[in-house]
Amino acid sequence: AFSPAVREWFASSFPAPTPPQIEGWPHIAALEHTLICAPTGSGKTLTAFLASIDRLVTSPRPEGRTHRTRVLYISPLRALAFDIEKNLRAPLIGIGLAAERIGVPFTAPEVAMRTGDTPSNERQKLIRRPPDLLITTPESLYLMLTSRARETLEGVETVIVDEIHAMSTTKRGAHLAMTLERLEEVTDRPPQRIGLSATQRPLEETARFLGV
Question: Cα dist. 82→113, 125, 135, 173 in Å?
């Protein structure tokens, strides 16, 4: 179901899809809310991101800043958010090179991060020029939705919640659930929700939290 450049990059980078990818991608491609429960090192992060990356690199950017950001990644930890930003560089560069090799169009997505450590001048820049993919934390997302920055989230199509088990049964999780509902009031249509974790027990409770 992926575009030629994404297929070319994946085939040259990995011997085969992992079980979470084989089972998860059809549901994600069908735009269903999806919960991925898999061990560390099983490729679950790429399971969540690849379909979104595929849409970003193969479609033109929406006109206007209010619909520029189409993918939100929410991390409970700032350190994990920094790691994700760094780890996204390789597939984006690789897919771009694959597109050049096989001669197909490629739109290079812009990735940015907003956390409690982001200086005010950088936050203002994100309002003036939103990224295609925004990496953030639950608290920073809440602050965006209660300020004029919420306008930049109107075009969000996918929300990826990492380490979802760390929040689903806590007060922080209840606050995030409220924030996700607030996000749906801002977006043109309810975004697809993808949850990731290596340890989700009970699985059914985590799925209810995600809305699966």
Answer: 8, 19, 9, 21
The position carrying tokens 């990735």 is 111
Q: Name every residue whose Cβ is closer than 8 Å to that of residue 62 and which is 6 or more positions away in sequence.
A: 68, 70, 155
Q: pTM of the full predicted structure?
A: 0.93
Classified as helix, coil or strand, 160 is strand
**For residue 144, what are the contacts with CB-CB under 8 A and spacing of at least 6?**
114, 136, 150, 152, 153
| SS3 call for 151 | helix
User: Which pLDDT tens digits describe the chain residue by residue (212 residues)?
Assistant: 899 999 999 999 999 999 999 999 999 999 999 999 888 888 899 999 999 999 999 998 888 778 899 999 999 888 888 889 888 999 999 999 999 999 999 999 999 999 988 999 999 999 999 999 999 999 999 999 999 999 999 999 999 999 888 777 788 888 999 999 999 999 999 999 999 987 766 777 787 877 76
Phi/psi at 134 (5° precision): -110, 125
Q: Is the separation of the CB atoms in 148 and 125 below 8 Å?
A: no
